[in-house]
Design brief:
N-(1-d-carboxylethyl)-l-norvaline Dehydrogenase, domain 2; 10 strands; alpha/beta; EC 1.1.1.44; single chain; 2 domains; eight-stranded mixed β-sheet; gluconate utilization; 469 residues; two-stranded antiparallel ribbon; binds 6-phosphogluconic acid
Amino acid sequence: ANAEIGLIGLGTMGGNLALNIADNGFQIAVFNRTPEKTDQFMEKAGPLAEKLLPNKSLEDFVASISSPRAIILMVPAGDAVDAQIAALRPLLEADDLIIDAGNANYHDTNRRAQEAGKKGPRFMGIGVSGGEEGARFGPSIMGGGDKSAWDRVGHILEAISAKYEDEPCAAFLGADGAGHLVKTVHNGIEYADMQMIAEVYGVMRDGFGMSAADVGEVFDRWNGGILQSYLIEISGKVAKTADPETGKPMLDIILDTAGQKGTGRWTAIEALMLGTPASAIEAAVAARNMSARLGEREKGEQVFGAAPQRMDKDLIGIDALEAALVAGKIICYAQGFGLILEAAKQYGWDMPLPEIARIWRNGCIIRSAMLNDMSSALSDDASRNLMLAPFFTKKLKETEVKLRQVVAQAALHGLPVPALSAALSYFDIMRTQRSTANMLQGQRDFFGAHGFERTDTDGGGYHGPWAMG
Ligand code: 6PG
C-alpha cells in the first residue's frame, strides 16, 4: 500500500484530476467501475503512468492506498455517490476519508456528513470548478466537511489547485455541506454572468444588427478592462469562431435552447428557501427554461409578430453595454454572497467570505479581475452588502444610469434582458428606504388579520379599520 491518495471515477473530470494529482508528484491509486476505462486512461497517461496505480477491483484499490486512506469520488452526483460510499464502507476503517468532489447538492453532503458521524469513515464534500482544463491544470477547490480531514489532505488539494500570484485557489470553507453550497452559488453566479453576457450579445445582434465577429471584437476589447474575466474571454472566442463546414459563424449555427444540469436551479431554490434575494440568478435560470421552449416561442412569434428590436446604435452605445454588465455583475455577486451569508447563519457555519472571493480569482469558471476587489471589500466587512463597499458603491454610481438606459431601451425595443432587469430592480429596491410593501401589509391585514407594524410607534400587531363587505 503506497499510494498517498485514491480516486474513483475516470470520466473526463475524474481522469484529469487524477493526472493533475500525479503531475504534482503524488502517488495515486485509480479505479473505475468499468475496467476498460481504466485501461484507456492508463494508455493515455504517458510518463505520468509511473505515479498512477490502476486497479481492477475495489478491494485491490483500497488495499493499494496507505492508511489512513483518502479517496476522492468523481462519480455523477446523486445516487451514484451513495452507492459508491455504501460499496466502500465495509472496506474502510473509521479514520479513512471519503471526499466527494462532484457537483453534489449540499443537502446531500450535509446528510452524508451526518451519516459518517463519529463512526466514520470520515467524509468531506469539495466543490471543484474549472471544467476539463481546470481539473487537469488547476481548478478552484471549495472545501467543506471535517476540518481535521482537510488538514490531512489540504496540502494535496492546494498543490493541484490553480494559483493566483502563488496563492492556492483552494480553501476550507466550513463544516458539512459548506463547500458544496459555495460551489452551487458559484454556479448560480456563473448562470447569471453568462446570461447577462448573452443579453448584451442580443442587444448587439438584434438591436444594433452587428455580426458575430464584430461582437467578438467588442468582447475582446472589454476583456482588457474592468470586465476582464474568463467568461468574457471565451464569449469573444465563441463569437469569432466560424463553422468549418459552412463557414458561417458558430453562433449562427448553434441552436438557441440552453442545457442545464441543475446547480443554477439549486441556487435559486436555496435563495427562495433561505428567504434571501437572488433575483438576477433566478432570472438567469428562468431564461434557460424559457429558451428550452422553442416550439412555444415559434408560435409566439407567429401570433404576436416579431418585436421591433432594431435600434440606432447611438441610442445607448457599446460603452453603455459594458457599463451595464459591470453594474449587473456587482449586483449579482452581492446577491450570491448574501445567499452564502444567510446559509452560514442558518447552519451555524463559520464561512470566510473574503476567502471564497479569493479562491475564485483563478481556476474556476467565474474567475475575473473584479474578484480581487471583492475579496478586499469582503475583508473590510463581510456582512455588509457588497454594493455598500466603497469601491463597488463608486462603480455602481458610475454605471447605474447606463444599466438603466440599456434596460429601458431594450424594453422599448422588445429585446429581452431578464437578468439585467432583475439586477436593476434589485438595485432600485435596495436604494429606496420607503418601499411599497406597506400595501402588501395592508392587504394581508385586510384579508387575514395578519397585523402590521406602524411607522409612528414601536411594536407590531396593529390592525387597520377596514370596512368589510
Ligand atoms: C465549473 C462548472 C461545471 C459545469 C457546470 C455546468 O464550475 O467547472 O460550473 O461545474 O460546467 O455543471 O452547468 P450546467 O450544465 O448546468 O450549465
